[in-house]
Amino acid sequence: MRIINMDHVAASPLLPQVVDAMMPFLTEKFGNPSSMHSLGEEVTETLDEARGKVAALINAKDHEIVFTSGGTESNNWALKGICQASRSRGNHLITSSVEHFSIMHAIKALEKQGVEVTRLPVDKYGIVDPDDVKRAITPRTVLVSVMHANNEIGSIQPIAEIGRIARELSIPFHTDAVATAGVIPVDVEALNADLLSLSANAFYGPLGSGALYVRKGVKIAPLLDGGIQEGGLRAGTENVLGIVGMSKAAEIAAVEMESRIAHLIPLRDRLIKEIPAAIEEVELVGHPTQRLPGNVSVVVRYVEGESMLLFLDMEGIKIASGSACISRSLKVSHVMLAMGIDAGTAQGSLLFTLGKDNADQDVDEVVRILPPVVQKLRDMSPLYKKTSKFKTIT
Amino acid sequence: MRIINMDHVAASPLLPQVVDAMMPFLTEKFGNPSSMHSLGEEVTETLDEARGKVAALINAKDHEIVFTSGGTESNNWALKGICQASRSRGNHLITSSVEHFSIMHAIKALEKQGVEVTRLPVDKYGIVDPDDVKRAITPRTVLVSVMHANNEIGSIQPIAEIGRIARELSIPFHTDAVATAGVIPVDVEALNADLLSLSANAFYGPLGSGALYVRKGVKIAPLLDGGIQEGGLRAGTENVLGIVGMSKAAEIAAVEMESRIAHLIPLRDRLIKEIPAAIEEVELVGHPTQRLPGNVSVVVRYVEGESMLLFLDMEGIKIASGSACISRSLKVSHVMLAMGIDAGTAQGSLLFTLGKDNADQDVDEVVRILPPVVQKLRDMSPLYKKTSKFKTIT
Amino acid sequence: MYSDIVMEHFKNPRNVGEIPDADGVGEVGNPACGDIMAFYIKVNGNILEDVKFKTFGCGAAIAVSSMVSEMAIGKTLEEAMQITNNSVIEALNGLPKKKHHCSNLGADALHRAIEDFRSKQQGRQMEKPVDGPEVCSCPVCDVNDPEEAPYCNTACGHSSPK
Amino acid sequence: MYSDIVMEHFKNPRNVGEIPDADGVGEVGNPACGDIMAFYIKVNGNILEDVKFKTFGCGAAIAVSSMVSEMAIGKTLEEAMQITNNSVIEALNGLPKKKHHCSNLGADALHRAIEDFRSKQQGRQMEKPVDGPEVCSCPVCDVNDPEEAPYCNTACGHSSPK
Ligand SMILES: Cc1ncc(COP(=O)(O)O)c(C=O)c1O
Ligand SMILES: Cc1ncc(COP(=O)(O)O)c(C=O)c1O
Q1: Domain named Aminotransferase class V: which ranges (chains A, B) (predicted)?
Q2: I need a labelling partner for A17 at 20 to 30 A (CA). Which of A177, B94, B280, D150 fits?
Q3: Given an 8 Å threshold on Cβ–Cβ distance, is B242 in contact with A240?
Q4: What span, in angstroms and rounded, lies between the C-alpha atoms of D56 and D152?
């Protein structure tokens, strides 16, 4: 059976060039960049180059890139590190109500320590109004953190505008760009970002590798204290393998980005059009055009996401869902709730995240396989009114 | 030129079996363990197995192992997470004066937030007196953290005894076992440890991968908040590659540990005997027998470590030093200072950390090459009194 | 994740449907938690002559419903009341821990249908059942998690303090 | 890490030694920071006829000492006083940033030896020089770090607050 991976948000395969770049660091280049001797030095040089490649991807300067263990660490560090460093200035954070768990729960942890939080609402497309940011700012505000694009619903936020508002009032601005960096153009200057989180797997780099961009001059406390790796900002022996892989992936993403986007958008738009045409009572979640090039998020009424996902999995189609059963938290996506979608409807969430290797025939397959799966499950659903009251399907 | 790596504390090459185990996760097994579908599931199974292997290495239960980005994260998390979770119980920490930077500076960060700290002295071998631990405990003590063995001087602490004292008073006990786990027997039951940090490279696993053992029932706040990876204790997409490598390395370490130790101790003891025999005014640092099997730490008077290291590097011998010039902090090792070694003498630090591939002929080479290097540098040193006052060496 | 038996029941659920003139009906769950199960029973004497269900929920919920229906058919009411979460899980050759709460719903819905039948027999209107679990289960240690945390705060071995 | 010129001077340092009847002696540094340099000069008229040094320190410290001695020999005292940290670093084809503080010591020690010579000429005893840098430099941004932090707390782009 051909595997159709449309769950790139969860994991994308490494590019072959990335694997090739990593290979020497599995064998002969095993040094620790902290070592003074030649074994360490060759690795130090590699890390310097890696930093440059990741910096180039987002138009940053080399020394503004700090390697981390992924988007979650970057997000936790940005929030906790800025709050810690800003205690004398204030204790108020502004964020949105559709952030990733790694922002949402880091902020909850800060709230327990007395930090005050404004969570901005979103419109029905999941998008923040920059004017709300302006209104929320107080003299005690130490950070604005709004994600660049939402991984679950695909909507892209007006980050440049939000960043401009924060910059005018000299408030540091962080954006979680895990869903966008390496995927669509991300430029820390254009976005007015002071801190920006990214994660390697979004652009076909290894899982568990990421970076935080920290604009020169921004005061941030370390999350990991210890040795003087990463300019004293992030201690710990570096995950050299991950960094090498991420940087190679970043280098390639910069080159291929335009053609990847041009490839993805027509596939995305076919699914957005053809799924609701084939199945009644299916709705698109998120903004129709202001969205990630590979993101198709829909809700299918009267059925629950995991059951659809399992049938699709058996047919070789790999996707995700924001339903409660699938979430390890057993709660329906807070993102959809924030957009005004009710919890019952949100259970029918299906999330297709396309990648560079998806093709038109993959879309054909989804459009062929999904409708009978949905029908079978609707026939079993006590919520589905249209089914003949006494019909059984066994 | 044959490379003689005696800097295993900085980096050890991956075992070939570890590389083999990692390979599939560079290519076809790219899934995210959080995914519901088959791509994720095969990886989830791998992580479960990996947890079991790491647990077995230290006699823990599977669910007590939490994967981290290395020893530094494990140490930071143990300290900050316990303090955070224990606010209502107290705010006093007990530690030693010879801990790794990742403990020392995490504690300094906590001190700035009002945590009170007792730093226990050490004897001339760098060893803590368990009675001092007992005396330091107050009703407000929330954690005792003393390392298992010191990476720089090799001395092994009386951890089981310190753990017993803490256990009797129901105070959580953490030990930084980065230098010992996978190297010598580490058993969380025998050591009475409630939390234990380990790092994969100590036993020929990848850099930037580690774990924290958290005994069932111990209350700890997350350092990385977010998704429900690692049972909700450590959010973030897992570094699957690193975890797979670490677990394979752990599995092999458990099997080979005894023979590795039997191989290392005679090499270590030859260096400990033959270096001072070949060079006058060289002293062993740390305990002569209560020490890591591969650790040889000496101070060479009147010369500075980096200059010796560079000459050895040119001859293919890779070692480390605790001298200020080598430390990225430009400060001499706090460990040696705590042992009562003066700063000037400590500059002459040389640290040989042997690995399983070192052989007798490597020891021969060191004993052959080191003495003329030292003599050349002593002849250049304004501190070396014995040289003829007017002799030049050019 | 799921055992072969679970997958078999999920793929080919037995006894799906409604019974138009059911002697008892039981419904539990709510869409917010992701599962709703409705059980319909036909009683002959003291015997469950027919059992049907409709389920909105995850794979486990569907398999559990199917298994409960199979286990119940032909049993006496007393025997059917003995069907427990654990016996269902056992019959399914196990369920992932985080899915255990789904199996509770299956037995509950059946029991409610039987109670509904008994109430009707006694000429009483069964009191409107409280809606299923108001709080969803902890995925980590399988206790109810009353709070907004993404993981269990209370009963797991490692617990994360508030 | 080091340039070829640095390595060359480190491996084969020029002018190592002491001058028994030196006209001026300058010593800077302290062992706690890892570097001590002692310079000995022989002055003929206004010219540095001979310069020798002894150095305890890292590779950069030795190379800097050697380079300073070479640059100084044959120069007038005034010219030698113009030798700066930067000119030494330049002559060495650069030094790693974290080693910049070593190069300061080389020029300083030479200048002290010259001052010692001048003081003696004027029949004064040179005031005992203060011992080298009491605080060691920040490896990250190369400013003095007065505190115990392992990295620079003040002037780097990213700074970590107290
Ligand atoms: C928007 C967003 N932020 C943060 C993260 C967390 O990144 P990581 O899984 O690398 O920790 C993710 C992961 O999917 C994400 O989609
Ligand atoms: C005793 C000790 N603890 C902690 C660490 C930090 O571990 P890592 O480098 O994996 O962050 C080290 C590293 O060498 C160590 O030797």
Answers
A1: 5-365
A2: A177
A3: no
A4: 25
Phi, psi of B278 (to 5 degrees): -90, -20
Q: How far apart are CA D130 and CA D27, in angstroms?
A: 10
Distance of CA B72 from the midpoint of ligand 2 (Å): 6
Q: Which residues of A touch B81 (CB under 8 A)?
A: none
Task: Tell whether B39 is within 8 A of chain C (Cβ).
Answer: no
Q: Which atom of ligand 1 is closest in space to residue A208's alpha carbon?
A: 10
CA A255 to chain centre: 21
Euclidean distance between the first and the last CA atom of chain D, given in angstroms as a whole number: 31
Contact criterion met (CB below 8 Å) for B14 and B23: no
Which subunits have 3 or more CB–CB pairs within 8 Å of chain B?
A, C, D
**Among the CATH numbers 3.40.50.1000, 3.40.50.720, 3.90.1010.10, 3.40.50.800, which is that of D4-124?**
3.90.1010.10
Q: Torsion over CA of D2, D6, D10 and D14, rounded to 10 degrees?
A: 180
Neighbours of chain D (3+ CB pairs under 8 A): A, B
Among B100, B73, B120, which Cα is nearest to B234's? B73
How many CB pairs below 8 A link B and C?
Answer: 46
- For each successive 10 residues of chain A (394 residues), what is the average pLDDT? 91 95 93 83 91 98 97 98 95 97 96 96 98 97 98 96 97 98 98 98 97 96 90 92 98 98 98 97 96 97 94 95 74 91 92 97 97 96 68 41
What is the CA(A291)–ligand 1 centre distance, in A? Answer: 17
> Which residue intervals of A2-70 are DSSP H helices?
16-26, 38-57
Mean pLDDT of chain B: 94
Ligand nearest to the CA of B235: 1
**B298: part of which helix (H) or strand (E)?**
strand B295-300
DSSP states of A84-137 as a string? Answer: HHTTTT--EEEEETT--HHHHHHHHHHHHTT-EEEEE---TTS---HHHHHHH-
Tell me the DSSP string of D8-62: HHHHS-SSBS--TT-SEEEEEEETTTTEEEEEEEEEETTEEEEEEEEEES-HHHH
Residue D67, CA distances (Å) to B135, B392, C70 in order: 56, 16, 91
Q: Could you give the C-alpha distances from D30 to A246, A379, B340, D102, in angstroms and in order?
A: 43, 84, 18, 12
ipTM of the complex: 0.90
User: pTM here?
Assistant: 0.92
CA distance B368 to chain D (A): 19
Q: Decide if B303 and D58 are in contact by the 8 Å CB cutoff.
A: no
Per-residue confidence (pLDDT) for residue D161, from 0 to 100: 34
Find the CB nearest C158 among B84, B226, B233. B233
Residue (of C32, C45, C94, C92) closest to C68 by Cα position: C92
Q: Catalytic: D102?
A: yes
**Sequence spans of domains, chain C:** 4-124
Sign of CA dihedral A108, A110, A114, A119: negative
Query: H-helix or E-strand containing C41?
Result: strand C35-44
User: Which tokens go with A216?
Assistant: 């020169």
Q: CB of A45 within 8 A of CB of A29?
A: no
CA atoms within 13 A on the CB side of B347: 23
Which segments within chain A are labelled E, that is strand? 4-5, 65-68, 92-96, 116-120, 141-145, 173-176, 195-199, 210-214, 282-284, 295-300, 317-318, 349-353
Per the listing, tokens 């059917």 go with: C80
Task: Summarize pLDDT for B283-334 with one digit per residue, the tens.
Answer: 999 999 999 999 999 999 999 999 999 999 999 999 999 887 766 666 788 9
